[in-house]
Amino acid sequence: MATAKHEGVDYRPLMSSSDEGLDEVEPRWSLTLNPSPWRDRAIVAIFVIQTLLNVLLIASGLYLYSRRGPSNPIFPQLTYSPAQNVLSFNVHKFYEGFGENITIYQKEPSDDVDKAWEDLYSFGISEIPRSTAEKLANKTYPLVGSGGNYIVELDVFHQLHCLNTLRMALSPEYYKKKNLTDLERSFLEPPHARHCLDAIRQSLTCNADIATYVWYWDPRDEMVKPTGNVVHTCKDYDRIVQWAKEHHLHSHFDNKLYVEDDLEIPIIYA
């Protein structure tokens, strides 16, 4: 039986059972493709290369994220922070805090309210090893008897202290009756309150939140109003708190004691 070939393709005649043995019958032709080994190998190679590239891309992204910091162009923390490796983000809904929709932090002064505020930052003073202190953009002070540790505070805890100070300053009569230390009373004086006011201003503009206020129709008042009951992208505060508690200052710190220190910090920002 005749077979036609053309560049790797065989054309073979199809014959019905009634045609068997009848050489004079005109054959019907079918197309049969011969397998091409080099083509199969090419497909496998392309698949393997694509898979490896995908794995490499994912691994590179994870590595860059794990190494986020001053020298990382994709996840930059332009100045070093000892807590930068715990940074993660989540979505959190803010509430305006009017009427009944308020938090304990807005309530009238009481022991419970004071404790709620203090619990936000009372652990905020930390100690870090020299190897970490060497990476800071600004030099800090050594802790005597700590095995070479240094004292720091993450700025968020200073800002919370300042915000609490301004809250307390709104109720001077209440806090005059409290058994505050001289230092705590000095916090409520106008010079410190003004310091706190501007510290919060600087922090807000530094960490400019670009979440959006939105407007809605209020059928009760029959007018359009803005609302702050919206979602924001936030740093995971719980993870930052966990870091601070793990590095909480346990060494004795004497702010009247001068200590010679040879730690050299490059002047990055004066």
TrEMBL record:
Record has Ion transport as a keyword: no
Keywords assigned by UniProt, alphabetized: Membrane, Transmembrane, Transmembrane helix
Pfam family, one: UstYa
A single BP term in Gene Ontology: mycotoxin biosynthetic process
Pathway listed: Mycotoxin biosynthesis
Bilayer-spanning residue ranges: 42-65
InterPro entries cross-referenced by the UniProt entry: UstYa-like
Family: Belongs to the ustYa family.
Protein name: Tat pathway signal sequence
Organism: Sanghuangporus baumii
